[in-house]
Amino acid sequence: MRKRLLFLLAHPDDETFGPGGTIxxxxxxxxxxxxxxxxxxxxxxxxxxxxxxxxHLGEVRAAELVRAAGILGARDVVFLGFRxxxxxxxxxxxxxxxxxxxxxxxxxxVLVGFGPDGVSRHPDHVVMSAVASxxxxxxxxxxxxxxxxxxxxxxxxxxxxxxxxxxxxILAKWGVPLAGVPRERLTTFxxxxxxxxxxxxxxxxxxTQAGDVARILSQEGYREFAREETYVLAxxxxxxxxxxxxxxxxxxxxxxx
Length: 257
Description:
Distance between the termini: 7 Å
Number of domains: 1
Number of strands: 7
Oligomer: single chain
CATH class: Alpha Beta
Strand content: 15-25%
Order of helices and strands: EHHEHEHEHHEHEHHHE
Radius of gyration: 17 Å
CATH topology: Rossmann fold
Strand order of the largest sheet: 3-2-1-4-5-7-6
């Protein structure tokens, strides 16, 4: 089985600041990694100092994401075409439909999104967490968006949905206003130690986010923290393990299509 993952996120830089080490690890192991991003980050920062103007920010950030994805090894990058900062006001069904289309196209064994609070609590992150959860179910349901089937996209049921999360004790130590989860809620621990350098290289591709990059990398022990990325297994169509997982594909049959 050629392993396939799809990361369903909100903005350029989410892929690196969050699960970048996981993307790099599985890409290096030969998995097909698809990165689906809802927006082009049009409402974000311009850089410190600015590297573009507001009118061109979406175009610049999209290019930054493509560069970062290439560094991490993602095979495919897709923009859903929604505008940064507007997802909470966008009809949810529209977002879910576009997400389902990409799931049916890429046919991932594993779907990865945010946890319910989106780590940063950004409204777009919160929306995309809910979208991933609904799309996980809807992609397998032939009654949802049947016009996609006539276009050649058959229903597809990913085996697992993971939510990227960070233990709240780490965030408390850093004193950053992000949303963590109790460590005991974490189900899955991915060894990304061999890919910390590649993740940090991908950070540098996001030049408009240089201020955030500097703040993140200056956190005490960040490089040690980045040696492992953590998740909550939110939904599964295969039996759940009775022990902490060390592999997103744990329990997925090798003969899976």
